[in-house]
């Protein structure tokens, strides 16, 4: 799929919910690291089961969730902000994503002079 291809998945903001998957992977890695489990090893292990995700594959390839956020933090911030804003605008709850939204936006906020494409 080239960058000019668009995939319609629903109302405006629906596609951004996929960005929340990255944050779930980051949180899983943060928790694992806090108890001494290597993040890349966790990601490779989860890849073999039902926990498989592209986000965790990126953690495995990059070596840590911190590296993933360093590479994709701008996009995570954008996607989570849009999903949150659209949900609020149409009166839909984010469900289990509601709790981590503020910390995600704080952790992925672009620093001054660092802007996305």
Keywords for this entry:
5 helices, mainly alpha, single chain, 0% strand, 117 residues
Summary?
With 117 residues, the protein is mainly α. It is built from 5 helices and no strands.
Describe what this molecule looks like in 3D:
This protein has 5 helices and no strands. Helix 1 (17-34) crosses helix 4. Helix content is 62%, strand content 0%. The chain is globular. It has 117 residues and is mostly helical. The protein has one domain (17-108).
The count of helical stretches stands at 5
* Sheet having the most strands: none
Low-confidence stretches: none
Average of the residue pLDDT scores: 75
Element order, helices and strands? HHHHH
Portion in strands: under 5%
Radius of gyration in whole Å, from Cα? 15 Å
Helix proportion range: 55-70%
Q: Number of domains in the coordinates? A: 1
Bulk shape:
globular
| Distance between the amino and carboxyl termini | 19 Å
Structural class: mainly alpha
Number of separate strands: 0
